[in-house]
Write a structure and sequence with these properties.
213 residues, alpha/beta, 9 strands, elongated, nine-stranded mixed beta sheet
Amino acid sequence: SFVSNDKVFAYPISIGCNHMVKNFKGVEYMLLSLFCDKKNLKADWRGLLLRFLHEDWFKGLTSYKDVILSHNKIKSISPTNILNCLGAVEKLNLSSNKLQDVPSELFKLPKLRILNLSSNQLRHLPNVKEWSLFLTTLSLEKNLLESFPLHVEGLKLKHLYLADNRLKSVPKSICNLKCLETLDISRNVDIHSLPVSMGKLSKLTQLDLDGLE
């Protein structure tokens, strides 16, 4: 039965992931039996001290719509074969990890609507040329980003959160997001002006500029 996350389970899972122990099957059993809600197609693996992701752990999630991997110590999404198991995912939460980069395939998940990558160590995003058609919410706050992908054709983002990064200006590509309703660029302290091209964002109803001069 589904168990809400508890620190009691985080320790044995962390031990099982240790490269000296390598009890990946044991970890897989705990993740799939204790932290998966089969009725609601939700996997909640937050706060389990996961340092990496193993492909086998995801083979049972091919029909899951909501996957939470936040508050772990994950440094990379590798192998990218993992993403092949997430074709049904609509909400993916990878916030509060140690990600320094992410594969472009992550943004192409066919059913993905909401992606949370906040509170990581991302310095840049991959040059995505084909975005998920359903992606409407992208959370990237509290990273180290200095730019945003150039190619946003077909991207139907409605909500983009970029607060607490290292942007020096509003990326031009953002001004081409025709469906954008919410934009948060708060506390990117090197942004001192807004481009005229932001006037193209005709559907923008919320613009957060806290901490900008």
